[in-house]
């Protein structure tokens, strides 16, 4: 049970988990596809979430072989439209409170995102009251050398754990590392919204709380091969003491379970 866990460090995904960027990705993608009479469904989007930019673009375009766009053309159009929107993207519910709480109690925190570093900076520059708490040394982006293979491989979460000084071992799935490395990985808690991210966190041997978009619930469960430890509607529903973490100072009486 989750209540028996003793978490010592926490790793956040970013897109769709901390910030409302998945809405931007969807709108921009469909604006581009609309020029060709096409639309991205949630079944398609489920396979994109968490992937590095180029891999996600290639995966998307594979569903539309008759659209005369190269991967580079698509990425170029996408960046122009997205860059105009990133400075306005907003935090999702519960993020500010949880990050501030963990920082106040000296719980090590890091970010593991498939976003490129340039995009991470564009998305977070206006939200430094939250993101500055992580420090640049505890953010691993998809194009950082340390990130390794993209999700669903465990590499990026292991890289983020290493920035916190955790001895999690090499970029291998949990089943092939030493017992000490497995124990160290099991002390970590991952927050994710994407199916690929859930798979990545579980393959890393960490505990995973999945906070999916409600649209993803309609198509996602059949695609999950590694199950999350807990599913929540929002970070507002997270109960720290269930994971051996300090409780919120003002936990609402009627919290969601």
UniProtKB/TrEMBL annotation:
GO molecular function: phosphatase activity
Xref: InterPro entries: HAD-like_sf, HAD_sf, PGP-like_dom2
Pfam families from the UniProt entry: Hydrolase (PF00702)
Name of the protein: HAD-like domain-containing protein
Organism, scientific name: Multifurca ochricompacta
